[in-house]
């Protein structure tokens, strides 16, 4: 059983996004008999950007530090739905492990593990795939987005959200912290819980989606504030990565698309570019957007960008240094993942036993009439 975790000192880098509330997106209350358990995942595809940091990772750290039972999965099975070089995938898995630790995930308190090492994820995916309709999957926006540019669409990309539901259900997770772009995937997991429970008897709690109320749910691209900051955007200046050198961060913030008004004012509708920068500023420092604008009176947007770049560099430098230090110890990172995987496996096995009994039956006493 996952222990209810002991209190621990807040990470030094605890940052100001804390003040943002978490909104429960599901209307159904978690049933009391299920212990509160948080599950989330992230694909090991390259460097983490500020969208991932504020939209997801930072939330996990916040929940972990307020004593919640948190499982963090490095979703390598999800990442192979698009072609990956095996060597690079292995390296990226360790890089993600280092990144999560540097961001404050404490692998002793939380369970940090590699998804593909727990084979029950794919087994449960098969069972859930058998109760999912194709129509339900075809309309999910992420599938549409990712398959758009492909001539031959891999089946994996299509069933990707079913695997995501399996991730969540296998640990009977009650809460799933993610950015806004994942909301519909979690909704599918909620639907599958209901279908499964109806068909096979009460087994899983409904997982609540935890999405922040504030701007961290969707950090925007620096090049096109109508879009989210994303790993897949071809323009590397569109995102601030945790591993960027200070010079790169400065350059990207300086080049961030704003508008022709020179004052610094906060109007996400009319001035989305500068509002995105102010949001990033606010998330890092905890200052309100009003206060930030007040302090920026007399600065033009160019001057304000220099101020913001200083803050971003100051906040990200220690994380970057930590990631670099940890990546010099791959054997240690591998050990961390193995330990996490063992703990995940223990939880998964108990759920999987229950699921197979319900779906296939296993008791010879139940056999009444073979013919
Ligand atoms: P991905 O990079 O798609 O693997 O996303 C990992 C996590 O980061 C998921 O919970 C996403 O919802 C979250 N995320 C990704 N991009 C953003 C963004 N621009 N703003 C907020 N959250 C994001
Ligand atoms: N699909 C998620 C993403 O791209 C990552 C993920 C995999 C996940 N499994 C999960 C998120 C389970 C939440 C719960 O961001």
Provide a compact summary of the structure.
InterPro entries: aa-tRNA-synth_I_CS (IPR001412), aa-tRNA-synth_Ic (IPR002305), Rossmann-like_a/b/a_fold (IPR014729), Trp-tRNA-ligase (IPR002306), Trp-tRNA-ligase_bac-type (IPR024109), Trp-tRNA_synthetase (IPR050203). The protein is mainly alpha-helical.
Describe, in plain words, how this protein is organized in 3D:
The structure is a single chain. The chain is mainly alpha-helical and 371 residues long. It folds into two domains: 16-218 and 330-365, HUPs (Rossmann fold, 3-Layer(aba) Sandwich), CATH 3.40.50.620; 236-324, Tyrosyl-Transfer RNA Synthetase (Orthogonal Bundle), CATH 1.10.240.10. It has 13 helices and six strands. The protein is elongated, with a radius of gyration of 22 Å. Adenosine monophosphate is lined by residues 42-43, 51-52, 55-56, 178-179, 181-182, 217-219, 228-231.
Radius of gyration from the CA trace? 22 Å
Intertermini distance: 41 Å
- The ordered string of helix (H) and strand (E) elements is EEHEHHEHHHHEHEHHHHH
Q: Specify the CATH homologous superfamily of the largest domain.
A: HUPs
CATH class of the largest domain equals Alpha Beta
Helix percent reads: 40-55%
Family: Belongs to the class-I aminoacyl-tRNA synthetase family.
EC number: 6.1.1.2
GO cellular component, one term: mitochondrial matrix
Catalytic activity: tRNA(Trp) + L-tryptophan + ATP = L-tryptophyl-tRNA(Trp) + AMP + diphosphate + H(+)
